[in-house]
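Let's practice the habit of predicting before peeking. Look at the sequence and jot down your guess about where helices and strands might fall. Then scroll down.
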Amino acid sequence: MNASAGPRGTGRRHYRSVFLSDTHLGTRGSQAAALAEFLAGFSCEQLYLVGDIIDGWRLRKSWYWDDAHDEVVRLLLAHARAGTEVIYIPGNHDEMLRRWLPHLALPGFDISGIRLRPEAVHTTADGRRLLVVHGDAFDSVVRYARFVALLGDSAYTLALVLNRWFNAGRRRLGLPYWSLSAFLKHQVKQAVKAIACFEDALAAEAHRRGFDGVVCGHIHQAEMRRIDDLLYCNTGDWVESCTALLEQPDGRLELYDWTEANALSLRASRTDRVLQAA
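Done guessing? Here is the structure:
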């Protein structure tokens, strides 16, 4: 979580690249205010939005959009206007944007300076080639049983509602934030097994295509580790954990935990997951 000072004495942190996903704007569970604070605090050369940025599934059922959501969109556009290459890879919750992907063959096609792509290839400063995908195509539930996925989405939404009430009570007691929904998810053995299968499938695909690693989102499980000789990175989310993947100017990759950096989490420190380039 060490960050260099911003360029030209601005005081803002500067990264070579930033990867974030699963912000789920349009839901009450989205930590849009925290995300806006994060986006306002850095500059970077490349900003990857790795899917499920806008939650079209939820917005189709009921509309929710507050000032913090507006601020996130404003800051993303501000990054693009400042010269940051902003690449948006739609996920399954913002799949409505995938209908634009056939137009990407047109030269210079983008939306307000933000480039839509089905996937991306990122080369780190130290020469590693990373496949960047949302990852839902490698989730057997989403791919082959959409009804089950939608049912799971409803259960997950209920867990997030309970999470808000749970933490409201903790605040009244003077206790810091703790994610009940994340705790419940990690207690389910089948969920843990599904995560492992998902990670292995993505690593195998990246290896088959000759990449050095893969960056994804989708499962709301921030992680950075080696699977055999391949680097697997998951950006996490901005609903439960508020995490992002950062590339330092020299190519080092690390996970950033906003709640940990702001002393808002009771969870154990995850600094042991910072992986230096090797």
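How did you do? Residues 146-172 form the longest helix (27 residues).
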